[in-house]
Amino acid sequence: MGLALRIPANDNAKKTFHRRGGDKNQRMASHLITGVAGFIGSSIARELVHRGERVRGIDNFETGKQENIASIRDRIEFVEADIRDHDGLKDAFAGIDYVFHQAALPSVPLSVGDPVRAHNININGTLNVLLAARDAKVKRVVYAASSSAYGETVTLPKREDMMPNPVSPYAVQKLTGELYMQCFSRVYGLETVSLRYFNVFGPHQDPGSPYSGVIAKFITQMLEGDSPTIFGDGETSRDFTYIDNAVQANLLAASAPAEAVSGQVFNIGVARQISLNQTFQALREITGFRGAAKYAPQRVGDVKHSLANIARAQKAFNYSPDVDFEEGLRRTVAWYKLRPHPTPAASTAI
Ligand SMILES: NC(=O)c1ccc[n+]([C@@H]2O[C@H](COP(=O)([O-])OP(=O)(O)OC[C@H]3O[C@@H](n4cnc5c(N)ncnc54)[C@H](O)[C@@H]3O)[C@@H](O)[C@H]2O)c1
Description:
By secondary structure, this protein is α/β, with parallel strands linked by helices. 39% of the residues lie in helices and 17% in strands. It has helices spanning 24-27, 39-50, 66-69, 86-93, 108-113, 115-135, 169-188, 214-223, 243-255, 258-261, 276-287, 311-317, 325-338, and strands spanning 4-8, 14-18, 31-34, 55-59, 77-80, 98-101, 140-146, 191-197, 200-201, 229-231, 237-238, 241-242, 264-268, 274-275, 294-296. A seven-stranded parallel β-sheet has the order 5-4-3-6-7-8-13, with helices on both faces. Helix 7 links the parallel strand 7 (140-146) and strand 8. The longest helix is centred in the middle third of the chain and has 21 residues, at 115-135.
């Protein structure tokens, strides 16, 4: 039986077709993106399509959106699948060379509220992805790890050789995924690379949930003339990383020599510490918003400071963040201005 591929014909309608056995090899995609309808997954997909590469994506629309892949929907294979469904992944991995594993429940507050559900997606789902990749003889899996694995560190910047100290279920889960990546590299010879993203932001990030990234939410609120809410005193800091830098890191990590990257963990940030107060001020300049921010108590599970040392990724695969914070903000504001945006929920994830 052929692989059932569901390709959305438009945002409201889906077309389902079955690949015939005869043309199987011709139609094989060489890159598989899990979580392709999400913010980072769809951004990787657009860049690969732009480069003329073959792309297959899977998603269950847990947090992802049809609109994120609308511009490339006729140039990728899309499989509606859940990474918790081990048996359902087999066909989607057939013929794949490189996997970019982005699918997750990517939220500290959601993992605090329902750690079991988050565990099932983030850990069990990741194990299923690795099993499917191993069985399909995939060349390499590049994994979306998280800087949250570090937790509160006494020393900044955070380096990969520091002891992880996760403070939320989400952080534990993302760290466990890294350990599984390393394990599959050692035990089964599957090449794996873990990229610890530091607060990625940019076009296509969803501002519409209470757990959305802080920049997406600030921008959409300020463009609506509403005051954003800052949790804590605003001196909480992050190494905000524009999406193009994260996409670049994924593609470089996929093509770097195995001896330089396989089984390893790399920070992906910009190596610059920006506070939430500074972010708000920068966005006031760009959006023209003249109001003040609202302040609310710091949330459980959020770390106070985050800053990446990116030397390891620079050395191993020439990672070099091209887009700085201010330029990234300008591009992101420009994108949100052009898109119709729903009114965001009140609270803000960082
Ligand atoms: N955005 C950041 O700043 C950041 C920072 C560190 C790590 N990460 C990691 O990067 C990855 C992508 O994050 P994002 O910001 O693009 O989030 P996102 O929510 O936009 O994307 C996640 C995607 O995974 C899909 N998904 C969730 N559960 C699934 C399941 N069971 N089966 C199939 N698909 C499923 C969602 O529908 C969504 O499309 C995640 O693994 C996240 O943990 C993100």
